[in-house]
From TrEMBL:
This is Gustatory receptor. GO terms for cellular component: plasma membrane. Coiled coil: none annotated. Pfam families: 7tm_7. One of its GO terms (biological process) is sensory perception of taste. It is a multi-pass membrane protein. The chain crosses the membrane at residues 47-66, 78-97, 136-157, 169-189, 278-297, 309-328. It is found in: Cell membrane. Gustatory receptor which mediates acceptance or avoidance behavior, depending on its substrates. Keywords: Cell membrane, Membrane, Receptor, Transducer, Transmembrane, Transmembrane helix. Belongs to the insect chemoreceptor superfamily. Gustatory receptor (GR) family.
């Protein structure tokens, strides 16, 4: 049976190619004669260029905010300044984290390749999920970046005098999507590998009397559980930072929208469309990973007697539907505090 391990490479290679130009670690697919193909990490100075570019963008945006600041728009400027600092901190943080965790990030790919070979050995057929996983990743990229472009365009029409600030805002906001995309891609591959096993079990009506097959099945489940742990170790710091920054950004954005609708905006229709799309983008950004991992947990618990698969971010909160409830509750609470504070001021 022909191995399709390079299918995983074909899935992750485009993302790592984009990473080369964004300051993230550079990975190359290396194949030596007589050796297995594998990813290798290459040294690069793009990190320093990316750090310099983000710092310059932050400095220019900061200059624009202070140069336009007046007593009549103190609240708006405070919101802009808060979000600007958060974006800058987050983008610098993920660049540094990606390089510190570069070996762990690539270790997940090698583990996924190995688990794929075990699944092929167990099911005795080539995996069929690669196209499905690629389509899921592609849909996420198209939807998220299309929303960012459309939102930036609509806001530029509403506020033509601030179009450069808006472009900087949306670029700073969407930069971390490149890093988040790798996590989503890993989870999608794991989810589809679970699907492959479960389809195999359904085809056998759960009557696996062969001890060797049962041993291989337990080995695959154990390996996928270990891969989930590797993903957690590689990305939990980023997920914690993302949870904090997303809560603050969403809260300040919702507060700003409430203030806007206290007075009917001039371009009411465009503002409404922009806000609806904004909340769509917020929901996709905040909850996609939690929903995918919830599906993984469900698949894992459905057909195995092993311990329940749990994904706790830095030991603080689970990345599942509970995270969604926590995020909504936190944002609601912060918005209430902001509204009350604004009334006092």
């Amino acid at each position: 049976m022909k191995s399709t391990n390079e299918d995983i490479y074909n899935l992750v290679a485009p993302v790592f190619t984009v990473w080369k130009f964004a300051g993230f670690p550079i990975y190359n697919f290396k194949k030596n004669v007589g050796e297995n193909t594998k990813f290798v990490n290459s040294t690069s100075g793009t990190l320093y260029l990316a750090l310099l570019g983000i710092t310059l963008l932050f400095t220019l945006s900061l200059w624009n905010i202070f140069s336009e600041m007046s007593d009549n728009v103190i609240v708006d400027d405070t919101i802009n300044l808060t979000e600007l600092i958060i974006f800058f901190t987050q983008n610098i943080g993920i660049l540094i984290l990606s390089h510190r965790k570069r070996k762990q990030i690539i270790r997940v790919v090698e583990a996924l390749k190995y688990s794929e070979s075990l699944i092929q050995r167990l099911t005795r057929r080539s995996v069929s999920y690669t196209i499905k996983a690629k389509n899921a990743v592609l849909k996420l990229v198209i939807v998220k970046y299309s929303l960012v472009v459309i939102l930036c365009t609509i806001d530029s029409i509403n506020l033509p005098e601030d179009k450069y600030n808006l472009m900087a805002y949306y670029f700073s906001w969407s930069f971390h999507y490149l890093f988040e995309l790798v996590i989503f891609m890993y989870f999608i591959i794991v989810k589809n590998q679970y699907d492959e096993i479960n389809r195999f079990l359904l085809s056998h009506n759960f009557k696996l009397k062969d001890s060797r097959t049962m041993k291989n099945l337990v080995s695959v489940y154990s390996l996928l559980r270990e891969i989930s742990h590797l993903i957690k170790c590689a990305f939990q710091s980023f997920l914690l930072m993302k949870a904090i920054t997303d809560s603050i950004i969403t809260s300040t954005a919702v507060f700003y929208i409430i203030r806007v609708y206290q007075v009917i905006p001039e371009n009411f229709v465009l503002s409404t469309v922009s806000n609806v799309m904004f909340f769509t983008l917020i929901s996709i950004s905040n909850f996609t990973l939690a929903i995918v991992l919830h599906d993984v947990n469900t698949l894992f618990a459905a057909h195995t007697f092993l311990n329940k698969l749990e994904f706790f971010v830095c030991g603080l909160f689970p990345l599942n539907c509970t995270y969604i409830y926590w995020m909504i509750t936190s944002v609601t609470g912060y918005v209430v505090y902001l509204v009350q504070f604004h009334k006092i001021v």
